[in-house]
Every structure is written in structure tokens, then in C-alpha cells.
Design a protein that fits this description.
The structure holds two protein chains of two kinds. Chain A is mainly alpha-helical. Helices cover 56% and strands 7% of the residues of chain A. Chain A has helices at 13-24, 29-39, 48-61, 82-108, and strands at 64-67, 77-80. Chain A has one domain (13-110): Winged helix-like DNA-binding domain superfamily/Winged helix DNA-binding domain (Arc Repressor Mutant, subunit A), CATH 1.10.10.10. In chain A, strands 1-2 form a two-stranded antiparallel sheet. Chain B has six helices and no strands. The longest helix of chain B has 23 residues, at 75-97. The radius of gyration of chain B is 33 Å and the shape is elongated. The chains are: A mainly alpha, B mainly alpha. Chain A binds chain B through residues 28-30, 33, 37, 45-53, 55-56, 75-76, and chain B through 17, 20-21, 24-25, 27-29, 31-32, 35-36, 40-41, 44-49, 51-52.
């Protein structure tokens, strides 16, 4: 299912990781940073600037919404919306197609020395 | 780099962004300081602030907003307008005040030692009224 409006452009690695982290559970800001580091085995570490840049954009696009804390001790959580899930699914399928095509191409290639 | 320093760095962001995410960003910065290098955090925040400023400047003001909201959302424009009004009033003041001093009006020819308006009887002695010539000869 495609998100409403025009076809979304490919997501940046940081944006993809943030959406993937939010697809698992609702998270607060630093929780997203930790989740991204964990799911990329520490290869991708996003800073607060990149994180809130993307969160603001996702909230404007309606892909993510915030859950206001009930008490002062709680932190604001972020939740992936249905549109956000659709955008993530679209991006994953795009990457999946790319991976499948590339694998097929690589398997069909013969080493030059064998020619 | 301390939290106070990062609080100042956050001033680089546009005010609406800071209002929405400033406190959260500060707490995430505090947490990230343990894991990230300071220069990476600083570069990340400064680049992000530049992106947000650019987006803020390129985003058109909402249509139909009241005048006060437009000025509040674009401080630079308000400052420019205020400066232009001030400069115009300054130029007008200099232009209108230049040239030879004007001759005093006839009704202001009161003897300089009289600091107060004279009594009715004294008026004829000390004042010159062009519209009513004195009937008696002056002393």
C-alpha cells in the first residue's frame, strides 16, 4: 500500500532506521537513538540534530505522531501512524527489489578469468 | 562541553522548533554525551540547525494570518520596517529643520525679561499686538 499523495522519494539511512525502530514499539527520543544503534549493530549512531530533524518532518507528513506525557516524570513518546507504516513498507519493498535484482545480476555474472 | 554550552547552541534553531523540541533535545544531548564524541554531536546539531533555519526561511507565511502574527513570525522584517520608519523620520526631521532660522512671529515679540504672561494692563506696555494698534503713546 502506497502512502497518500505522490510516490515518496527514497529515505535516507537515518530516516529508514528511525522508522524501523518506531515500527517495533513507541519510543522516546533517546530510546530511538539506542534502538537505531542496536538494530544496526552500532554502525549507525544518530545525533539529536538528525533525530529531531527527521521526527519533525515525519510529524509534518503524518507518518509519526507524538504521545504527550501524562505526568512530568514521563517522556514524550513517538508512534508510527498507518501512513508511516505504509511509507516504511514501500521503502522496504523498494530496497527488497533492488537487493533481489542485484543478487540475480551478481549470480549471473561469470568471473572474467573464466571467459 | 557543558549543558550550558549546548543550551546556547540550541539558540541557533528557529524559535518554533526550539519551543517544540528544545528541552527534549537537551536531555538527549546529555545522554548522548556519554557515547558520542563532542565534536560529532556539535557538528550534528549545527548542521541540523542550519537545515531548520533554511526550511523556516523558505516556508511561506500562512495566508490569512493576522498582521501581528506575520510580524511575530518574521522578526527580521519587523526590525527592517522599524529601522526604515526611524530613518525616514530622521531624514524628514533634518530636512525640515535645515536652512535659515525663521523670523519670530510678531505676536511673540514680548520683552525677554518678562517670563510670565503680563496682566491685561501691562500688555499694552510690553507687548506688541499687530492686530490692535495702541491708542495711547508708549512711555
Amino acid at each position: 500500500m502506497l502512502p497518500k499523495g505522490k510516490t515518496p522519494s527514497p529515505l535516507s539511512p537515518a530516516a529508514l532506521q528511525i522508522l524501523a525502530a518506531l515500527a517495533v514499539e513507541d519510543l522516546h527520543g533517546y530510546g530511538i537513538v539506542q534502538a537505531v544503534a542496536a538494530q544496526s549493530q552500532g554502525r549507525i549512531r544518530i545525533g539529536p540534530g538528525t533525530l529531531y530533524d527527521n521526527l519533525k518532518r515525519f510529524m509534518e507528513q503524518g507518518w509519526v505522531r507524538d504521545l504527550q506525557p501524562v505526568s512530568d516524570n514521563e517522556k514524550r513518546l513517538y508512534r508510527l501512524t498507518a501512513a508511516g507504516k505504509a511509507a516504511l513498507a514501500y521503502e522496504i519493498s523498494r530496497l527488497d527489489d533492488l537487493v533481489r535484482q542485484t543478487k540475480r545480476y551478481l549470480q549471473g555474472m561469470k568471473p572474467r578469468s573464466a571467459e | 562541553m557543558t549543558g550550558k554550552f549546548y543550551r546556547r547552541v540550541l539558540l541557533l534553531y528557529p524559535e518554533p522548533f526550539r519551543h517544540e523540541f528544545g528541552d527534549e533535545m537537551l536531555s538527549v544531548l546529555e545522554e548522548c554525551r556519554k557515547a558520542h564524541a563532542s565534536w560529532r554531536l556539535l557538528a550534528d546539531v549545527v548542521l541540523s540547525a542550519a537545515r531548520q533555519q533554511l526550511r523556516y526561511l523558505l516556508t511561506p507565511a500562512p495566508k490569512g494570518a493576522p498582521l501581528y502574527a506575520e510580524i511575530a513570525s518574521s522578526l527580521d522584517l519587523a526590525r527592517m520596517l522599524a529601522t526604515a520608519v526611524f530613518a525616514a523620520s530622521l531624514v524628514f526631521g533634518l530636512w525640515s529643520g535645515s536652512g535659515k532660522p525663521k523670523a519670530p512671529e510678531p505676536w511673540t515679540l514680548i520683552r525677554p525679561e518678562r517670563r510670565f504672561w503680563p496682566a491685561v494692563g501691562e500688555c499694552r506696555k510690553y507687548c506688541f499686538y499687530p492686530y490692535a494698534a495702541p491708542t495711547e503713546p508708549r512711555p
